[in-house]
Write a structure and sequence with these properties.
The chain is of the alpha/beta class. It contains five helices and eight strands. The longest helix has 11 residues. The structure holds pyrazine-2-carboxylic acid and zinc ion. Pyrazine-2-carboxylic acid (VGL) binds next to loops. Its EC number is 3.5.1.19.
Amino acid sequence: MEFKGSDRGPFVPALIIVDMQEDFCPPNGSLAVQDGRTLAPLINDLLSQPGFVTRIATQDYHPADHISFASNHPPPNNRPFESFIEMKNPAPDRKTESKPQQLWPVHCVAGSPGAEMIPEIDAGRIDLFVQKGKHSQVEMYSAFADAFGNLDPAVTSQSVNVDIASVLEKKGVTDVFVVGLAGDYCVKCTAIDAFKAGFRSWLIEEGTKCVMPDNWGKAKEELRVAGVSVIHADDPIVKK
Ligand code: VGL
Ligand code: ZN
């Protein structure tokens, strides 16, 4: 892969495919994103491009008692998609900090069929699977950090199986390309945190779909303000 610009220094790209899992896809996913499965051909095309120094897939990977599952909370404030509960920072020195957490249907329970990658994705080309959201008491949309932005491995090692920023740094990655599900949650947060971690961050618009499609305009603005470039699949930078 080649960058068609000039004077930007080294270009060492990585691909991050976010949460292309059964529970996020029709027809049977418990948190299905409309047309989520239709992203597979474009993602496989990206996977087949030779330029990426690493190809990483993330998986939402929750314990059954995860704080984001509506059914783990008492009524009346336990309506999936609608209710929010107060979530505490799991960092020992930040326990007084809390923030509202949206509730979801049970999804992507570790080891369950819903947590599996969809078989349409060419998993043989994926170098590393990042499993996130493993800590029962905290949400983790981004593959880089939990909902409180915790980066200390002493805290995050309970939420995620690998420190993705270190993996990318060791490979000399300069640029991260992000696709997958869902554009308004895990894809957005992962792309923003990639930029925060010091990588140029590119989100390929045709490579994502939103839980709530009406959210995409607002999400794109948040991404832009946060330093992420939302680009198209046929832009020169993603062409071989
Ligand atoms: C996601 C909601 C809850 C996502 C994960 O992958 O975008 N959304 N958990
Ligand atoms: Zn989740």
